[in-house]
Known about the structure:
Domain Response regulatory: 5-120
Largest sheet: 7 strands, antiparallel
InterPro entries: Bact_response_regulator, CheC-like_sf, CheX-like_dom, CheY-like_superfamily, Sig_transdc_resp-reg_receiver
Structural class: alpha/beta
Keywords: Chemotaxis, Phosphoprotein, Two-component regulatory system
Protein name: Two-component system response regulator
Low-confidence stretches: none
Number of helices: 7
Amino acid sequence: MSAARVVIVDDSPFSIAVIRNILEENGFEVVGDAGTLEEVNQVIAATQPDLVTMDMTLPGTDGLECTRAVHAINPNIKVIVISSMMDDEILKEAKENHVSGYIQKPVDADELLAAIQKAIAFEEIYAELEDEYVEVFKETLKDGLNRMTKTLLTYKNEYELTTDFESRGIAVIIGIIGKFSGRLMIDLSKDTAHALVAAMMKKEPANPNEVTAALAEYANIVAGNACSILNRKNKAFGLRLAPPSIMHGDRMLISQAPFKTVSAVGDTDFGEVLLNVGFKRGEDKWT
């Protein structure tokens, strides 16, 4: 089990001692504890833990308000509720407040460790995806072009896309769903698109609709192959594709995704092609 830095939020010295013993015996570092909302704000800001265990009943506040305070400081901190109370309404409210796990007192060591492992594993899986996806999508774009046109693609530039940008003329966007959601976009000029599709079809496209349909299928192949490779690396990704969307026009502005994406610009025999892809961390689901 990966080590993590933990803050315990509970107003009972007995409960704090029990939870601390379980955590420290299993290699976790308890970096602080808190029993009020004010203490939560102070300790979380000062220690920036990986994870917080959260009691639901606290003087002058409750676990949900304290959870919101934790996430206001750092939304990536995982919160696991440890409470004597557990019913459908409380569980519903906990999920709505982005809690990563919920166990009932008296604390069972195995149950607590399993909840922590699940929360930590989510971060580890996302980190693995973040390390892998750019190169995998670049390779499947390159491989798809080679297979379908017997030509090469050479990447000349790669950068994080942080603003809206003006399309070259045609953009194909495919949503990606699974444990993490994301977006693939392939952007190219109308002339490049026409020449590329002609090479793929080994004949001149009959009309612009045939060009966009072929590009949508190419993007779908690129995204599907990349997701298959990533899923083979880690089945937990569970990546799947949404149907492609195609946009085209003169001076078309493409909105920046609400999460980190990376653009790679490639030179081909048909012109310049931009690949843009990214994933967002999202929230783990628990039952």
